[in-house]
Amino acid sequence: MPTHPSALKPLPPAGPSGYQARHLLALPDDVLVDEVETLALSRFAGARWDVVPDAVVPASPAPAVAGPGEPGVLRTSRHTTLTGPYAPGPGLPPGTAMVFDVVTPRERGEAMFPGGGDRDGLGRAFPRGLPHREEGRALAWLVEAARRLGGSIAVDVTDGGVPGVVLTPDPAVAVDMVVYSDVWLDPDAAHAVLSEVDLRVHLAMDGTEWQGPPRGIADLPLYRGEQMDAAQRRRIHAAADEVDIKALTSGEPLDGFGLMLDLGVDGLVAVEIDGTEELPLLLRGLPWTAGGAVSYRVHWEPADLEASQDEFPSLDFRVARKRSAELVAALAKALHRAVGGEIADEAGFLVEPADL
Length: 356
What we know:
Largest sheet: 8 strands, mixed
Number of strands: 15
Strand content: 15-25%
Strand order of the largest sheet: 3-2-4-5-6-1-7-8
Helix content: 10-25%
Order of helices and strands: EHEEEEEHHEEEHEHEEEHEE
Distance between the termini: 24 Å
Radius of gyration: 25 Å
């Protein structure tokens, strides 16, 4: 059974080359190395072990296996690697049991816009310029992996292994979930399933009847200086109206709809149901996703959108978020019971229904 490698080696003090950046992924003792591999495979199509660490069963064959206690090398791209696990050094949060040494090209862009949202503290960690391109993708994954696994990241580690700013992403921030399935629920069936969780759920399918184009639009030029013949312009508008009328009266099958749940001061939850070909990486190529899948997206819209992007939001907001997250999880779980498939969090990482 996969477990922790034995007797971890200390983190090497030497830093990377000048054109590279060095960060650390710090994890608690209830995390298995296999989980790090799974999250990497969930985000990076080319993720693989160059060297497999002790006691880990890789998802695919690797060219080399480390000795007892020696670190492995997990490559997420041609230029970015995670080497570890190592024993934690100084400057990391209490409870850190192992770390991965992350080396990636150093690529910095503009600083975060003053006053903009910074819920994960990246603007604080990189005041001179945010990582972008390859380093930006690596940092985004590190933040989401640390959030999912209850860990932290230390950015811009210097020679000697001394961490720069340490960020501990709040797991409670990730509220939204998506159920992917090959089963389509019609509106009444979806309403029935979700109403078992909360009777306030209602279908949100009412629109405004189209009244046609504005009167006289066919007599107006398309833009200033346009010289189109008036009769030709009217023929073009008439043809466009015919296409619109046909689309509105053809009885095309429903390919998406939504349900709403008003939470009052906590905001609202929207459930959006439609077909998609944009699937989490681990679901692509499966027999039941070959032609795409049905997505049941459960999204929380807080009453205070600005507070949702604060790194340290108020207690009132955190209480509202907790209540809403519990409801989102319950709705996602009910949908999964009805349609099967897989559940993903907002980072695209798969979630076991039993963990909800």
